[in-house]
Amino acid sequence: MRSKFAFFSLILFSLTTFAKESAVEHPCSTIEIHTQEKLKLSKTERKWICGDDESSSWQKIPPWQARFFLKTFLQDRGYHKPSFEVRGDRLITKVGEKTVLKSFRFISPPEGFHPEKRRKLKGRALTPGLLSEIEGWTKARLQNRGYACPKVEVTSVPKEGSMQIFIESGKKHYFPKTSLFEVRGSDREVYLNRYEAFLPGQLFDLSLTQLTANRMVYDEFHLSSYFDVSCNDQNELQLAPRLVTGDPQLISAGVGFNTEVGTLARFRYKHTQMDDSGSYFESQLFLSFVEQSFENSFKLYDGPPYRDRDYWMPRLFLRNEIEGKYEATSASLALLYGSTFEFEDFRSEFRLGPAYNHTTIREPARNTFVSFSTQGEFSLQSHDYEYFLRDPREGWQVSSTLESAFEKLGANRTFHQWTYQHQWLSNWNDWDPPLMILGWRFKVGTFLMDDDRLFYAVVPETLRFYLGGDANLRGFGRKQIPIDRLGSMTYLYQGFEARVGEVFPYNLQPFVFLDLAWEGERSLKLSRTLYYSPGFGLRWSSFIGPIRATLSQGSVLFADNLNFKPHWQFYLSLGREF
Amino acid sequence: MKKLLIALLIIFLLVIGVATFLWFNPSVFLNEKNLNRVAKSADLDLHWNTFRLDFKNTGLLSKEIILDTEKFCLNHPPRLDFCFDKILVQFHFSIQFQKPYVAFRDLNLDIISKYFYVTLPDEQKEGAMDKPFQWPRIHLGSLDEFMGRFLAYLPEETIKNIHVDMDPLVVNLSKQLQLNASLKSDSTQEKVQLKTTAVLNQADVKKFEAQLNAVLTLQAPIRLQAEGAFTLPGPNMTNNLQIHWQDRPEFTLKTTVDFKKLKIDLETDGSLAPKKWTLKIAGDIRHSSLPFERLIISDCPIQLAFQNDQPSQLEWPCDFAIANLRVRRAKGLPKTLEFKTNLVSPLNFDKQNFSAHPVFKINMEKSSLGELHALTQIDALIDLDRREIKKLQAEQLKAELFIPSLTAWERLLKDNRWAIPAPFNVLKGSIRLTAASRSTELLRKNFSLYSSLQTDLASETQTLKTSTQIELDLDLQKPLVTLSGIVSLDDISIDLPYLGIEQPPQFKPDARFMSKKKLQKKIKKDEESKATNTKFVIDDLRIKTARPMRFSTRLLDAPIPIDINYHIRKSKFLTGQIMVRQMGLNLFKRKATLQKFNITNFKDSDVQDLDGLITYKTSEVLIKILIIGTTEKPTIELLSVPPLSRQQILSVLLYNKSLQQLADEEKSTASQMDQALLNNAFGLISLFFLSSTPIESVYYDPTTQSYTAQVRLDDQTSLSLGSDFEKSQQFTLRRRLGGPWSISTELEQTEDANDVVTTLVEWFKRF
Fold this sequence. Notes:
The complex is a heterodimer of chains A (578) and B (767). Chain A is mainly β and 578 residues long. Chain A has 4 domains: 21-94, no CATH class; 103-168, Ubiquitin-like (UB roll) (Roll); 180-245, Ubiquitin-like (UB roll) (Roll); 309-574, membrane protein fhac: a member of the omp85/tpsb transporter family (Porin, Beta Barrel), CATH 2.40.160. Chain A is 14% helix and 45% strand. Chain A has 7 helices and 28 strands. In chain A, the strands form 5 sheets. Chain A has a 17-stranded antiparallel β-sheet that branches. A 4-stranded mixed β-sheet of chain A has the order 1-2-4-3. In chain A, a hairpin with an 8-residue loop joins strand 21 and strand 22. Chain A is globular. The relative contact order of chain A is 0.05. Chain B has 767 residues and is mainly β. Chain B has 9 helices and 42 strands. In chain B, the strands form 3 sheets. Chain B has a 35-stranded mixed β-sheet that branches. A 5-stranded antiparallel β-sheet of chain B has the order 38-39-40-41-42, with no helix packed on it. A two-stranded antiparallel sheet of chain B has the order 36-37. In chain B, helix 7 crosses helix 8. Classes of the chains: A mainly beta (578), B mainly beta (767). At the A-B interface, helix 2, helix 3, helix 4, strand 6 and helix 5 of A face helix 6, helix 7, helix 8, strand 39 and strand 40 of B.
């Protein structure tokens, strides 16, 4: 027994010892590499150290040259302590330990730079890529704080595992006081007021130029835009936009199938440059056996190109629905006036205008709903929120809508639908990249009418409030709440989320959340029944966008005879963010 | 007057009389009693057992002197302490009126000493003016003749008997340096023998040891034979000396050194004739760290000619060889490299000045490795009194190194750190390097050197033919080296290394990684912000090509033709151009033509201007891609004939289609690509590599200023994600069916409805 134990111990010991020993790689017969981690050399690298049989000039590589190249390739991977030995025909390389970054120091950072906020550096392999990354990060951080033309130099002492970042920030710059820019590459001058995310004379911030460029592209007027930032010999800021516009008109036609309406056909027409001011028109015709719709919308600007922020937005919408439970035809005509205002840290937008709605229900019982309503929207959005839209981490957004229908203008009864929502995101301790992102979502809505009891008779189902789904209560099915009736008159929702930032590999970000909501069948009143769903999820920032998966259990407090069985709810969504 | 003369005469006669009396009776004053008195008055501890000093008059002008003493001892610390058991000196001398003016014979010498200690006084440094140097006039002929200058009689007549035994003989040269010697000499009728030993110690450590045995034959022909050895224990050096003097002094010195890895075996044969001294040196030197087994000195006779008993001409031809080069696989390489040197110089001693005009030549014998010829002629003048060099002028300097075959050097060096790197190690041909200098006063420490380098090298696919003429001015006092010249790249064709479709690896180590010492230097330099001490300045250097250089790479069908015309002045004004000539290339997987690509440096500019033009032609349109701006910020502009929008140009380049055939998302891809071009996120190299990669479209994120290749499942299928970031998101998989047709599957998620999946076949047109 003892001998068997000793024998197996010896085997185990040998295996572990063997496991600790370095692996030996032979990229070719003349090179031997001892390494503890697998070293994958590319084909090009192998040929540079071993020789290229296909090239007479590069077939034979002298040992010192192979050693020189190998040293460079190893440095590129963070190995700074290789040892070399020539034994006969072979170059024997012991790669040694990978050098990781142990300490770093910013030299002469300006006030407000806060280099201590940079994380995810220590412990990483000390490679040229890491040095370039920190150089780019430092430069961008300086440029986001007013230093438009900084000089940054990075050095490293591999023996100590240290990195030094030398900063010459230069002076602070400010945005030009004019919004009229000369477009680089042309002799045009354009106003960029409509898209500017910065105020004239504001402290320079590179992210705001990027935001401005994004707005121009998202508006679909320009296919690409970019700001060229440089400083001349007198160290004055030179800001020049580069714009590319495309062909303005698009027409498309398609036939297909979808899970909701079955066979369908779709026709689209878009004109993104109706006039010099940048007005646009879009029309879409959608045909299926279940639903047919015709949407048309304009956005009309005035004045010289891209100067004005005011616009008119006429819309015409026609729809015919042939559902199993009902058949209806609806038409909507609206004329909204909108405008945006830019502040130093945020953007505001409001829209207001009347709308005419006509709905005729043919089945199960013929009925006609006509109403004139007003639609009002007001929103504020911080620049941070807008800048990090594709990868939310910081900022806030507030919006409110008011839609009114008037009895004397076609509606059965006068009622007003008011909603308010805000979203707040915070990068905990301002780490870069973020360590933890905290989020708070708040939504509230109610109807205002003189007699609450007429709500369900007067207000169409489509306008009522529903809760449940991956947009609010994630532990409940889509529009599951209210359970016992069709829609609510008042609701209040709050959601809290804590998401891990860039900590795990492969861009995986787990998070936990808690959704809370109340609803009520009266105006400005909420029942005491609390719907809540704690849960957890995983966000993956893929190359095509964010993918979120959540698992949550919906529960009810103060159920008051509600027939509800708690259950686990899973959601998988693409592109949706908190 | 008369009385004076008489008085003088009387005095003179008295002096003569006294002198005559003393000549004939020297024992009156040279006697034991007087010696005692002198010792007492000088406070010397001098004593003896017996003392006899006799003078016998054997003629008017001749005498016999006998000194016989026993136990003759003197103690005078710290300088002298000796004791002779016996001193017997007996000889006969006579005065004659020809050389030698004093003739000795019948010398009987018997000296026995048990100890003899002497401490030399500290050396007094003499001023240069106190002891003027002068080469002694030495005339070394036959021993007979030499001794004849000093001895009137034959040696066998002069010496009757010699017996000297002094052991130990100790001389304290300084506080730590002590010489312990012994001296023994005996004579017979035929010869006198001498044996001497000496050991020099420094702080009780033996530094030097010597012994010498000499025999002087008294009967004709007189000859001297000596044999001795001296060793230096420190470097383990042994020297065996043999001296023979009959017709002329001749000696043989054999030296061996065996110290750690160094081994030296040298033999020097000297012959010192009256009109010519000859020293022949031969031997070899070995050291295990040298790249060869040994250095052989084979034929090295130093000849010094004399005129009027002073050196008048030095001639020193010397052949040496480097034997058994330590190379493996030395096939075709010579085993030994032979060199011939020759130093010839007239010498002139003119009162206190010494002048010489050495001419030195070195030639490496013709071998597969090469030929080396060097010649230098110097004019030197030395002040012997002041012991300083008054003039040191290099009249002429010429050197030439010709390597007939680089292949031989490649084989010689291939396994060590000096190996010729690829791709140059396959070149065959010759290299010629010459250097010359005008007449230069070396003491001024300012020299000019002219040098030229010609390479005539080629291989199967490469060529390296250059000619360079440069002038180097060296000012050792500053120190400063200034370079001017012209480098002509006559015919260059180089194969570039393998480059794959992936990003090329780093070519050299990143200079941002440094040692702590270098970092501290950098920080100090930045803090002080002072101009660096310029040690090397390029005053005026031109680099130009006679015909375009050609760089071949597997990524292009034809080599890249590049012309250079650079002018560097004062190390900072760099003007000139690097021009890439017209060539075909692949761009976005299409055949295009690089019409030109020039990198230009203007005076007073730190950056290089770019001027590049790539043309791409189809049956309908000619597209021009302009690469402009600077190397720091390159910019790409697109033009076409007929004029298309930038977007259309990109679409034609990327997809080889006209705009009408494109689907919407391809347009978006093209615009993102354009954005990346505008943002210079693409380096010029990336632009080139992109055309070779299988990934055809890119997604550019202006927020993070990075680009990522969007995955295309195949040539016609793409993935994309659209989001309004408010209420809905669409995930679309689209596949082009050809022409304006495509099929797409879309997943739409909205707040107010269930997820909807839609599949459509669509037709697009942009106008």
